């Protein structure tokens, strides 16, 4: 290993450790009573494994329902949005239809519009459908993601047209070509988009806060934020809630890491 590579590796390692320190501090503090969390100077590790924070979180708060809501909303929204994005990206990359370039330009332009600008009209639509405080309100408005279409279009463009043409000569229709040929080839990009979308929907706070009116419909993000706003000296309970909310994202990233690292770069270079 060259000296320059060694220096770069050391710097990257130090930065990685620094980025993990807040997570380490969050998890360790969740196993401390509130008095130890406020202690100065603080203890790096808890003196004993204090589990009352988690017991109180799941016994006195509907944390299990919040967790279920978060997983249901995040997985369903992510799965459907990835399928819709892949279908639209395939159409833009491989099919020929009138106005394709103009429509795709509109898609790209919409990425520059902040979500906050259309929350009010979107909220009025949800109220008109009488979907407030339902799973439909948390899932349906997030299904169409222009970023996913933009990202996957480059993956489908790298796939040779000869594959599609050969399948059509064998009698396959567009649905068969898309689901049985194109999707498996674009698996790295789909995996990367799955991670990005899952993290986005799991952390979505504003829209979930507007739509979930009852405490039982809250997701973990909204429920934990509510704990933070309560006037309570039990900081350990709040930290435990934040730790529970952070763990699934880490697990999802670890499980799909190989797809994420391949997907971010695989579609960047065209054959």
UniProtKB/TrEMBL annotation:
Sorted UniProt keywords: Cell membrane, Membrane, Transmembrane, Transmembrane helix, Transport
Any one GO cellular component localisation term in the record: plasma membrane
Pfam families: BPD_transp_1
Gene3D superfamilies: MetI-like
SUPFAM superfamilies found in the cross-reference section: MetI-like
Membrane topology (UniProt): Multi-pass membrane protein
Highest taxon of source: Bacteria
Transmembrane spans: 7-27, 71-92, 104-129, 135-156, 177-202, 235-256
Protein's UniProt keywords contain Transferase: no
GO biological process, one term: transmembrane transport
UniProt-annotated location(s): Cell membrane
Similarity remark: Belongs to the binding-protein-dependent transport system permease family.
Protein name per the record: Carbohydrate ABC transporter permease
Native source species: Vagococcus zengguangii
Higher taxonomy: Bacteria, Bacillati, Bacillota, Bacilli, Lactobacillales
């Amino acid at each position: 290993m060259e000296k320059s590579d060694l220096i770069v590796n050391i710097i990257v390692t130090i930065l990685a450790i620094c980025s993990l320190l807040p997570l380490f501090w969050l998890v360790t503090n969740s196993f401390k009573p509130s008095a130890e969390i406020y202690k100065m100077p603080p203890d790096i590790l808890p003196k004993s494994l204090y589990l009352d924070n988690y017991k109180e979180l799941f016994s006195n708060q509907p944390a299990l329902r919040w967790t279920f809501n978060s997983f249901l909303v995040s997985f369903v929204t992510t799965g459907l949005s990835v399928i819709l994005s892949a279908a639209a990206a395939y159409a833009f990359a491989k099919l020929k239809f009138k106005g394709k370039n103009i429509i795709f330009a509109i898609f790209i332009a919409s990425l520059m519009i902040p979500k906050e600008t259309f929350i009010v009209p979107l909220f009025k639509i949800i109220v008109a459908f009488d979907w407030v405080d339902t799973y439909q309100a948390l899932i349906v408005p997030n299904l169409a993601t222009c970023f996913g279409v933009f990202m996957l279009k480059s993956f489908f463009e790298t796939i040779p047209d000869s594959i599609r043409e050969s399948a059509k000569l064998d009698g396959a229709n567009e649905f068969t070509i898309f689901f049985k040929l194109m999707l498996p080839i674009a698996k790295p990009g789909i995996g990367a988009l799955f991670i990005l979308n899952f993290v986005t929907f799991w952390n979505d706070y504003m829209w979930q806060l507007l739509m979930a009116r009852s405490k039982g419909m809250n997701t973990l993000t909204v429920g934990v934020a509510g704990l933070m706003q309560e006037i309570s000296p039990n900081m350990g309970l709040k930290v435990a809630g934040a730790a529970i909310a952070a763990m699934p994202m880490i697990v999802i990233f670890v499980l799909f890491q190989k797809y994420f690292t391949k997907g971010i770069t695989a579609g960047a270079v065209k054959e």
